[in-house]
Amino acid sequence: MMAKQRTSSVYQRNAFAPGLLAAAVLFLAPVLMGGDWFTVVLFVAAIFAVIVGWFAIQARQWWWLPVFVVIAVIWNPVFPFPFTGPVWTAAQPVAAVVFLVAGALIKVKRA
């Protein structure tokens, strides 16, 4: 019996892996709030926002850029905003979902 030949995908999703990693950290973020580990969350969210934003630029999907600029600024660890409370806690999983959706939708055609 001959093995079925697999055809490669026409598109590649470069933002998928960084989006998935950022989402995993942001889903854990409410548990880490108030501790020293939350600084790691800020670094991960800001760095991966820049990375996913760059992949959006490469894919010519410019509408994602303002979204990830906002995430990079709000979650920046260098000059952190003193956010607290239920709105900030709820913003973590919302940003995680944004990373997941962007990771799935940002794609470029393979050469």
UniProtKB/TrEMBL annotation:
It holds the Pfam family DUF6804. Keywords: Membrane, Transmembrane, Transmembrane helix. It comes from Microbacterium ginsengisoli. The keyword Membrane applies. This is Uncharacterized protein. It comes from the Bacteria. InterPro entries: DUF6804 (IPR046548). The chain crosses the membrane at residues 12-31, 37-57, 62-81, 87-106. The keyword Transmembrane helix applies.
